[in-house]
């Protein structure tokens, strides 16, 4: 246990400035809490500012899966939430610059191509079976430009969106969302309205904290078997590729929810499937920003009488901050993956491309599963858990290197009008429906 944790716990504001210069500010204690976790949960506002100024990470998770930003929302102090949110934006930008550097190397060493993948969503819930859509995504890559098209087809949900990425373009052209149905586009990196962040913080404070994790600690791959009397290794032909089929054992999806910071009225407005799919990520909450009343700070929770020694010697994590109103559910996920040795794109290149487009829809979850230690080859088809009640089978059904792509394929279509905060994802559409 670092002296930093003790100084925060005991609110030693005289010692802390010295310690943040000498010690690792992101070191965790036995409960997985960083000093910033403790500062937020205990309402140590000066400690929070000192730690943030010296590089404390805002989205580091403790053993329970919660980040300092989650704990700030639970505590309910708006100024602290604002500080952590702004630091999150800065840290995210720094991380994206590192991603950009890595991805540029990959893009420059890879030929131009088109890749199509199909998402077939499935569930055990009867009424959802009828309305879950099929989503076809097409990724186009030319030089350092990437275009991701999504076509959503279903009984109720339909849509056609393009996501344009230009890693070496001007700031206002690096990420553009195009809604073909409404003939509108949005430049994501363009200067946002002055009060946008404040409205976004309002939404954080009036929504449940939801974390959905794909638990992959004990995942194993086994060759799937065919036949009953004369068993053998299962093989399939998917498109032009001969594939070996593996079952994925030990894959679990877990959902945790906290709502202690919400009023009864806010709780009544939080029971939607779209909330689960958004999973509390700040970039996905942006869709619901609107003209709602300003959300003020909550009354602080009672001060704890737990000493640092009590905390240190506890066998289970003591309650710090607001009393939790939490729920959790998990589901073991039956999954298969079809591997081929003949796919012309490497998995490493695919992961690099997906890192750029990960904020779109459920691609981030796909990337997490693809980062498992897969069997040899390329995963032409793989099952991906979305939430405990919904999964998807993702098939890479078409790939070709291309020398016919032009710069106009990565431009905004003529006669489309600019909009702000357009409905741009599968999650947005689900929220509108539910």
Automatic annotation (TrEMBL):
<protein>
    <recommendedName>
        <fullName>Ankyrin repeat domain-containing protein</fullName>
    </recommendedName>
</protein>
<keyword id="KW-0040">ANK repeat</keyword>
<comment type="function">
    <text>Acts as a molecular chaperone for G protein-coupled receptors, regulating their biogenesis and exit from the ER.</text>
</comment>
<dbReference type="GO" id="GO:0005789">
    <property type="term" value="C:endoplasmic reticulum membrane"/>
</dbReference>
<dbReference type="InterPro" id="IPR021832">
    <property type="entry name" value="ANKRD13"/>
</dbReference>
<feature type="repeat" description="ANK">
    <location>
        <begin position="31"/>
        <end position="63"/>
    </location>
</feature>
<dbReference type="InterPro" id="IPR036770">
    <property type="entry name" value="Ankyrin_rpt-contain_sf"/>
</dbReference>
<dbReference type="InterPro" id="IPR002110">
    <property type="entry name" value="Ankyrin_rpt"/>
</dbReference>
<feature type="domain" description="Ankyrin repeat">
    <location>
        <begin position="158"/>
        <end position="403"/>
    </location>
</feature>
<dbReference type="GO" id="GO:0006621">
    <property type="term" value="P:protein retention in ER lumen"/>
</dbReference>
<keyword id="KW-0677">Repeat</keyword>
<keyword id="KW-0472">Membrane</keyword>
<dbReference type="InterPro" id="IPR055285">
    <property type="entry name" value="ANKRD13_C"/>
</dbReference>
<keyword id="KW-0256">Endoplasmic reticulum</keyword>
<dbReference type="Pfam" id="PF11904">
    <property type="entry name" value="ANKRD13_C"/>
</dbReference>
<dbReference type="GO" id="GO:0005102">
    <property type="term" value="F:signaling receptor binding"/>
</dbReference>
<keyword id="KW-0143">Chaperone</keyword>
<dbReference type="Pfam" id="PF12796">
    <property type="entry name" value="Ank_2"/>
</dbReference>
């Amino acid at each position: 246990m670092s002296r930093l944790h003790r100084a925060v716990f005991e609110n030693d504001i005289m010692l802390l400035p010295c310690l943040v210069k000498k010690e690792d500010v992101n070191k965790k204690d036995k409960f997985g809490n960083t000093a910033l976790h403790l500062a937020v949960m205990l309402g140590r506002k000066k400690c929070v500012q000192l730690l943030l100024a010296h590089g404390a990470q805002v989205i580091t998770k403790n053993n329970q899966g919660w980040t300092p930003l989650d704990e700030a929302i639970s505590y309910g102090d708006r100024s602290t939430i604002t500080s952590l949110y702004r630091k999150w934006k800065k840290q995210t930008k720094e991380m994206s610059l590192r991603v950009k550097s890595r991805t540029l190397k990959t893009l420059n060493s890879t030929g131009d191509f088109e890749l199509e993948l199909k998402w077939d969503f499935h569930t055990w819930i009867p009424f959802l079976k009828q309305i879950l859509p099929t989503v076809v995504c097409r990724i186009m890559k030319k030089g350092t430009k990437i275009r991701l098209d999504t076509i959503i087809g279903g009984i109720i949900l339909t849509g056609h969106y393009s996501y344009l990425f230009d890693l070496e373009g001007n700031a206002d052209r690096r990420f553009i969302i195009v809604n073909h149905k409404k003939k509108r586009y949005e430049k994501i990196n363009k200067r946002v309205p002055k009060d946008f962040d404040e409205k976004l913080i309002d939404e954080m404070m009036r929504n449940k904290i939801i974390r959905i994790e794909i638990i992959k600690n004990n995942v194993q791959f086994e060759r799937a078997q065919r036949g009953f009397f004369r068993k053998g290794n299962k093989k399939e032909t998917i498109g032009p590729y001969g594939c070996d089929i593996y079952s994925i054992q030990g894959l679990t999806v877990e959902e945790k929810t906290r709502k202690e910071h919400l009023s009864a009225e806010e709780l009544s407005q939080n029971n939607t499937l779209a909330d689960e799919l958004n999973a509390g990520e700040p970039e996905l909450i942006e869709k619901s920003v609107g003209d709602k009343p300003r959300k003020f700070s909550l009354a602080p929770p009672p001060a704890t009488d737990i000493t640092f020694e009590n905390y240190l010697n506890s066998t289970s994590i003591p309650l710090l901050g607001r009393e939790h109103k939490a729920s959790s559910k998990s589901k073991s996920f039956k999954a298969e993956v079809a591997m081929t040795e003949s796919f012309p794109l490497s998995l490493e290149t695919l992961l690099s491309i997906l890192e750029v487009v990960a904020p779109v829809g459920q691609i981030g979850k796909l990337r997490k599963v693809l980062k498992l230690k897969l069997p040899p080859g390329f995963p032409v088809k793989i099952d991906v858990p979305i939430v405990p009640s919904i999964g998807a089978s993702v098939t890479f059904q078409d790939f070709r290197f291309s020398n016919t792509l032009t710069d106009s394929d990565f431009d905004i279509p003529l006669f489309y009008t600019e909009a702000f905060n357009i409905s741009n994802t599968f999650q947005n559409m689900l929220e509108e429906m539910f």
